[in-house]
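User: Some background: our group keeps a shared notebook of sequences we're curious about, and every so often someone picks one and asks for a predicted structure to add to the entry. Today it's my turn. The entry only has the sequence so far, pasted here. Could you supply the structure so I can complete it?
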Amino acid sequence: MAEKDFKSIAEQLSLLASRGLTIENNSVAEEFLLHNNYYRISGYSLTLRKNDKFYP
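Assistant: Of course. Here's the predicted structure to add to the notebook entry:
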């Protein structure tokens, strides 16, 4: 498994948005990611995605 590069909170939010996740409040999303690592929540998001994009 390849080592993953560190991503800032802003980069994580940008990545999620680029994959189709709607982020209504950036401040709340940033606070959430400060306490819940992107890589930890990404496993849960697998059921919400198809072809690396979030369902509408």
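Suggested note for the entry: The chain has one domain: 9-54. The chain is about 50% helix and 5% strand.
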